[in-house]
Amino acid sequence: MSWEHVINAASAAWKIIEDGKPSLEVTTNNANAVPDVSDWSSLTDAQGPTWIGRKLKWTNYLGIDVVDMQFRVYWEYGARYHGGGAYIPNCHVTVLSCDVAWGFDVNLNMRVHNPTNAGTETAPRARLPISISGSVSSPLTTQTLGWEYVLFGDGTHESH
Amino acid sequence: MTQHVGHDGVPLRHDGTPFPPDRSQWTDAEREYLDTYWFGAQEHHDHEGDTVAALDVPDVNPGAMA
C-alpha cells in the first residue's frame, strides 16, 4: 500500500439505463481513483465536479423523437493526499433525460477499468478509464452504442 | 395507417385504437407502414463536455497533515 498506487475503492460497473428507463443503480453507485492507503478518505482540496456527456436522439420519419436521452459523467478532481497528488475521490453518472417511444428499447451500462498513476511516484496523477456501452433497439434493428473515456485527476479527460 | 399517436405515446390505427405490441396482430400494410415510418429513424449524436484547465500536481509530503 502506498500513495503512488491508485485504486478504485468503490464500484466497477453499473447500469445507467435499463429497459428504456434510468436505472436506480445510478443513484447508488460511484467510482473513484484514490491512493492505495488506509486513510484515502482523508483526501483534501477536491475540486469540481467537471463533466463529460452525450445527447442522443433518434427521430422517425413521422417527425417524432422516438429516443431522446442525455447523460453526463461527473467527476471531482484535484484531491490531495498529504498536500500532493491529484486524485479522483468521486465519479458518478447522471441521466438528465430519457424518453423512449413505443416499440423501442434502450440499455446503457457503465464500466470502470482499473485506475493507474499517470504522474510520478512523488506527484501521482490519477488516470481513470471508463467505458459506456449499450444499445438502442427496435423490432427491426439493434444499434450498438459505445464510448471510451479517460478521466484524469487534474481535471482533464480524453475521448476515444 | 397511423393517423395519430395516443396520449401514452402508442401509435393509433386508422380506427383510433392503439396498435397491439404483437407484430403478428398487424396487417401486412400496417407492418410495412410502421416499419418504414415509425421504426425507421435517423440518429443524432452530440458530445458535450466541460473544459477545465489542468491543475498542477504537487508532490505528496508524507510529513504533512492530510
**Which pair has the most extensive contact?**
A-B, 55 and 42 residues
Rounded mean pLDDT score of chain B: 87
Adjacency order of strands in the biggest sheet of chain B: 1-2
Radius of gyration of chain A: 18 Å
Number of strands of chain A: 13
Global geometry of chain B: rod-shaped
Report the helical percentage of chain B. Answer: 10-25%
**Percent helix of chain A:** under 10%
Work out the helix count of chain A.
0
Poorly predicted runs of chain B are none
β-strand percent of chain A reads over 45%
Largest sheet of chain B: 2 strands, antiparallel
Any idea what the shape of chain A is?
elongated
The main β sheet of chain A shows up as: 7 strands, antiparallel
Uncertain residue ranges of chain A: none
H/E element order of chain B? EEHE
Element layout with pairings:
The complex is a heterodimer of chains A (160) and B (66).
Chain A: E1 6-7, E2 13-18, E3 21-22, E4 31-35, E5 47-60, E6 65-77, E7 79-81, E8 84-100, E9 105-112, E10 116-117, E11 126-137, E12 142-152, E13 157-159
Antiparallel strand pairs in A: 1-4, 2-3, 2-9, 4-8, 5-6, 6-8, 7-8, 9-11, 10-11, 11-12, 12-13
Chain B: E1 4-5, E2 11-12, H1 28-38, E3 41-49
Antiparallel strand pairs in B: 1-2
Describe the structure.
The complex is a heterodimer of chains A (160) and B (66). Helices cover 0% and strands 61% of the residues of chain A. Chain A is built from no helices and 13 strands. In chain A, the strands form two sheets. In chain A, strands 2, 3, 9, 10, 11, 12 and 13 form a seven-stranded antiparallel sheet that branches. In chain A, a hairpin with a 4-residue loop joins strand 11 and strand 12. Chain A is elongated, with a radius of gyration of 18 Å. Chain B is of the alpha+beta class and 66 residues long. In chain B, a hairpin with a 5-residue loop joins strand 1 (4-5) and strand 2 (11-12). The longest helix of chain B has 11 residues, at 28-38. Chain B is rod-shaped. Chain B starts with a strand and ends in a 17-residue tail after the last strand. The model of chain B has no long low-confidence stretch (mean pLDDT 87). Chains A and B meet through strand 5, strand 6 and strand 8 of A and helix 1 and strand 3 of B.
